[in-house]
Amino acid sequence: MALTRQHVRETVETYIRAWTTQDPELIVTVFTESATYHERVLAAPIRDRDGIRAYWQSKVVEGQRDIECDLLSLYVDGEVAIAEWEARFVDVVHGVRKRMREVAILRFEGQLIAGLREYWTSEVIQ
After folding, report:
1. Which of 49, 64, 109, 120 has its CB 3.0 to 4.6 Å from that of 89, i.e. a possible disulfide?
2. Residue 88: CB partners within 8 Å, gap ≥ 6?
3. d(CA 40, CA 22)
4. What is the mean pLDDT of residues 75-104?
5. What pTM does this model have?
């Protein structure tokens, strides 16, 4: 089945819901078993669903709270999608509220994400 913009939107909405509800079990449902996740594109990727789940547990569940996120833009070209979103959350580790703007490049295999690369910046907000 060809990848559609509607399917990509639904997948990104599930990703955002997993983030805002801090659900590591939900996040892995949008990835292939052998997916790669580059939080820092110049560093080694996080590999497979188990790695993504562990990263999500550490980074999102233990490190953030009061998460809000809005999808700003979505582009689809063949099996690749580009999503831009803005999030606000409490960084538990540093004890501050942050605003993050991110662009994610998503490579799909079938209906699931096989590769994700994040490019983001954040700032402390009041």
Report:
1. 64
2. 66, 67, 68, 69, 97, 98, 99, 100, 125
3. 20
4. 98
5. 0.96
